[in-house]
Amino acid sequence: MDQKNNLFTVFGKTIEEFSLYYGIFLIVWGVVISLLSGSSSYTSYIPSYLGVIIFIFSYLSLKFVNKKKIFMHIAATVGLITMLGGLDILRTMLKGNLFGNFWADLSKLMMLITGGLFVYYCFSSFKFARKINNL
Prior knowledge:
The structure is a single chain. The protein is mainly alpha-helical. It has one domain. The protein is 74% helix and 3% strand. The protein has helices at residues 15-37, 46-63, 68-86, 88-94, 102-134, and strands spanning 9-10, 13-14. The chain has a two-stranded antiparallel sheet. The longest helix is centred in the last third of the chain and has 33 residues, at 102-134. The two termini are 16 Å apart.
C-alpha cells in the first residue's frame, strides 16, 4: 500500500493492473494445462474463461475510470467464483482420489489459492479506498 499517494498497490501495481495480470495468468494457465494434459474437455479451460472475464473488467476499469468501482466489483466477484470453483478439490479429497486426475486437481488447487489471494487483495483495496474517502 502506497499511503503517500493514496494508492493501494499489490506488488507495485494498482489493483486494476494487478487484476489485469491475474486475468492473463488464468487465461495462460487454462491453455497451457489443457495442452500439457492433452485434454479435449472444455472444462480444462475454465480458468481461461474466468480469466477472460477478469481481464475484460480490469481493462474496462482502467479505460473508464468513472466506472472503475463497478467494473472492479465485477472482477472481484469473478475472483470469488474462481476461488469457490477451486473448492471442488475438497470433493476429490473426500473421495480419496486426490490428484487421481493430476492436471484437473492442480488447476482446482491453483484456482482455490490464487482466487483466494485475489479476493483478499480486492477486499483490502476496497477497504483502503473507503478509508481514504472517509478522511
